[in-house]
Write a structure and sequence with these properties.
The protein is built from 21 helices and 19 strands. It is an alpha+beta fold. The chain starts with 6 loop residues before the first helix and ends with a strand. One of its GO terms (molecular function) is leukotriene C4 gamma-glutamyl transferase activity.
Length: 592
C-alpha cells in the first residue's frame, strides 16, 4: 500500500484512538511520531557508511584501472567482460559477451527476446556512434483489431504486445563495426553457464519469484523458468540448456539463424499456435539502424542521448531547463532544488507524451525540443513556490520496465554504453517451444489514440523507455553511464549529471546519492496528468525538506524499490578509468 505524507499522521492517530476517529491529541502525537521516525530514517537509513572520506551515503570508492573496465548489474557478467578484454577483445566484444550472460542470469530484465540500444565512443574515429536495435510491430496486426476486440489499451502480457526482438541483430551490427574476437568466443561464456548452471543472485531471485503468479499461465514459461515447479531462490543453481542450444545456433549460423533460420520458424509456429501475430516475415525483414546521437551542453559538459523512438532527449530537456538556476547554491537536499527538478521533469514529460515516437512515421521535432531557446520558454512556466497540477506540451516546429544497463571500456580508449530490456517484468510471458527465452512486451507502449505520434501501426517501432547515455568534454570522452528503470531513467540521467557537475560528487557517489523520483506525468500511452502526480524521495532527504515540499503543493509517497539501477565508467585526465556500480542492485564494477 502507498501512503502520502499527509495521510500518515491521520492513519497513525486513527490507531492511537482505538479506530474511532482521530482526536486532535491523537493527530498531534501522530505528527510527533512521524517527525521522529522520518528524521531517524533520514539520519540513519540513508545508506550511511562509516567512511573516512567522501560522502556518507557512498557505498564504496570508485574502482580504478588503466587497461580495461566493465560495470554491469551481475558480477559474473562483469567478470566475463573482463575476461574478453584480457583476451584482446574490444569494449564492444566485452559488452556483447556480458549482455549474453545477463540475458541468461537476469531474465527478469533482459534477454534475446528483447531490444537493445547503444552508444559507442570510437577512439580511432574520435566520435560517437549510436545504434537503435529496437524491433517493430507485427505487419499483420491492424490498428482496427484493438477496437474490434473492445481493447482500450494494448495488454501488458500475452501475444498482443510482442514486437520483433532486436537484440541479436544489435550484437551483430556492433560486432561487424567494432568487434575484434569471433562471435563464438563472445557467446561461449553464456553457453557454458546456460548448460552448467549458475547461482541466482538476490534481487533477481526476488523479481523472478514475483513474476511467477502473472506469467506462469503462458505456454512455455513453466518449462523454461520454473524447474521443479517453482522459480529458483537466492543462491540456488539454475541452468537453461534450451537457451544454450539457441545461442549455439546463433554462433553456427550468425544473425540469420535467429531471424531467418530455425529460431525464426519456431517463433512463427509458436505465435500462430497461441493467438499471436509476430511472424517469420516480421523477423526476416528486421533491421537495426545506426543513428546520430544528439546532445546538449550543460555547464561545459556535452551530454549525449539517442533520438526517439527512445526517451533520452527528456534528460536533455530537463538539464536545459535547470541550467538556468544556481543549483549548487540551493543545495542537493533543499526543497527548492527538489521542487525545480520536479517541475522541469513534468515539463519535459509532457513533450515526451506528445512527440516521442518512431521517426520513420513522424517527424519528431528533436532539434527544437532540445534547444536552449525552447528551454528558456518552458522555464518561465515554473512557479518557484508552487507545484503545478498540470502542464501542456510545448508547441514546436513507464515506470514498470525492467532492464539491464552495462558499460565497458578497453585499453585503446573505446567505450560502450549499452542498455537492453524485455520491458515489463520478465516480458510478455510468451516463451517459444525449446528456445529458452521469453519474447518482449514492448508493444504495450503504443498509443491507441488515432492521430497520436505514437499511435499503433503495423511495422512501427513503439515508444521506448530504455536509453544509454554518454558525456564528452572538449571533444574527448568523459563518462559512459546509464540508469535502468522505465520512466525513472531520464530523471536519473539528469540527477547523475547534476550530482557531479553542480554538487561535486565522484562517479560512485553520484549514483549512490538519494534520489528524487516523480511519477504520474502524462504518458505516450494516452494517460494525462491532471493532479500534479507525486514525489517519491529516497531515505536521506530531511523531514524539513519533505514538509516544505508538501506546503508547496507536492504529494509525497513513501516507496521502496523504484529508484533505478546505475552503472558508469569515467575516463579522467590521466587516462585512468573510474568505474561505479549500483548499490541498489546485485552488480559490480571491476577493471584491470
Amino acid at each position: 500500500m502507498k501512503l502520502t505524507l499527509t495521510d500518515l499522521p491521520g492513519r497513525i492517530g486513527y490507531f492511537f484512538n482505538g479506530a474511532k476517529g482521530v482526536a486532535p491529541g491523537g493527530r498531534t502525537l501522530a505528527v510527533a511520531i512521524l517527525t521522529l521516525s522520518t528524521t531517524l530514517c533520514a539520519v540513519m537509513g540513508a545508506r550511511a557508511y562509516d567512511r573516512v572520506n567522501g560522502e556518507g551515503f557512498a557505498s564504496r570508492s570508485p574502482v580504478l584501472a588503466t587497461r580495461g573496465m566493465a560495470a554491469t548489474s551481475q558480477p559474473l557478467a562483469t567478470q566475463v567482460a573482463l575476461d574478453i578484454l584480457k583476451q584482446g577483445g574490444s569494449a564492444v566484444d566485452a559488452a556483447i559477451a556480458a549482455n549474453a550472460v545477463q540475458g541468461l542470469m537476469e531474465p527478469t530484465g533482459n534477454g534475446i527476446g528483447g531490444d537493445l540500444f547503444a552508444i559507442v565512443w570510437s577512439a580511432k574515429d574520435k566520435r560517437l556512434y549510436g545504434l537503435n536495435a529496437s524491433g517493430r510491430s507485427p505487419k499483420s496486426l491492424p490498428f482496427s483489431y484493438f477496437a474490434d476486440n473492445n481493447l482500450g489499451k494494448i495488454p501488458a502480457h500475452g501475444p498482443l504486445p510482442v514486437s520483433v526482438p532486436g537484440a541479436v541483430d544489435g550484437w551483430f551490427e556492433l560486432h561487424e563495426k567494432f568487434g575484434a574476437l569471433p562471435m563464438k568466443d563472445l557467446l561461449a561464456p553464456a553457453i557454458h553457464y546456460a548448460n552448467e548452471g549458475f547461482p541466482v543472485t538476490q534481487l533477481v531471485a526476488y523479481y523472478w519469484n514475483r513474476s511467477v503468479p502473472v506469467l506462469e499461465k503462458y505456454p512455455g514459461f513453466r518449462a523454461t523458468y520454473m524447474p521443479g515447479g517453482r522459480a529458483p531462490r537466492e543462491g540456488e543453481i539454475f541452468s537453461n540448456p534450451r537457451l544454450g542450444t539457441t545461442l549455439q545456433k546463433i554462433v553456427d549460423g550468425g544473425r540469420d539463424a535467429f531471424y531467418k533460420g530455425d529460431i525464426a520458424r519456431e517463433i512463427d509456429r509458436y505465435m500462430k499456435a497461441n493467438g499471436g501475430f509476430l511472424s517469420y516475415d516480421d523477423l526476416a525483414s528486421h533491421t537495426s539502424d545506426w543513428v546520430e546521437p544528439v546532445s546538449t551542453s550543460y555547464r561545459g559538459y556535452d551530454v549525449w542521448e539517442l533520438p526517439p523512438n527512445g526517451q533520452g532527449i527528456a534528460a536533455l530537456q530537463i538539464l536545459n531547463i535547470l541550467e538556468g538556476y544556481d543549483l549548487a547554491t540551493l543545495g542537493r537536499q533543499s526543497a527548492e532544488y527538489v521542487h525545480l527538478f520536479t517541475e522541469a521533469k513534468k515539463l519535459a514529460f509532457e513533450d515526451r507524451a506528445k512527440y516521442y515516437a518512431d521517426p520513420a512515421f513522424n517527424e519528431s521535432p528533436v532539434e527544437a525540443l532540445i534547444s536552449k531557446s525552447y528551454a528558456d520558454k518552458r522555464r518561465k512556466l515554473i512557479n518557484p513556490e508552487r507545484a503545478a497540477k498540470r502542464y501542456d506540451a510545448g508547441t514546436v516546429a513507464l515506470r514498470h520496465g525492467d532492464t539491464i544497463y552495462l558499460t565497458t571500456a578497453d585499453k585503446d580508449g573505446n567505450m560502450v554504453s549499452l542498455i537492453q530490456s524485455n520491458y515489463r517484468g520478465m516480458g510478455s510471458g510468451m516463451t517459444p517451444g525449446e528456445l529458452g527465452f521469453m519474447l518482449q512486451d514492448r508493444g504495450e507502449m503504443f498509443s491507441l489514440k488515432e492521430g497520436h505520434f505514437n499511435q499503433y501501426q503495423p511495422g512501427k517501432r513503439p515508444f521506448h523507455t530504455i536509453i544509454p547515455a554518454f558525456v564528452t568534454k572538449d571533444g574527448e570522452p568523459w563518462m559512459s553511464f546509464g540508469v535502468m528503470g522505465g520512466a525513472t531513467q531520464p530523471q536519473m540521467h539528469a540527477q547523475v549529471i547534476i550530482n557531479m557537475v553542480d554538487f561535486g560528487m565522484n562517479v560512485q557517489e553520484a549514483g549512490d546519492a538519494p534520489r528524487i523520483l516523480h511519477s504520474g506525468s502524462s504518458q505516450p500511452t494516452d494517460e494525462l496528468m491532471e493532479d500534479g502526480g507525486y514525489l517519491s524521495l529516497e531515505d536521506g532527504f530531511p523531514m524539513e525538506t519533505r514538509r516544505r515540499l508538501v506546503q508547496m503543493g507536492h504529494q509525497i509517497r513513501f516507496e521502496s524499490g523504484p529508484y533505478g539501477g546505475y552503472q558508469a565508467i569515467l575516463r579522467d585526465e590521466n587516462g585512468v578509468y573510474q568505474g561505479a556500480s549500483e548499490s541498489r542492485k546485485d552488480g559490480q564494477a571491476a577493471g584491470y
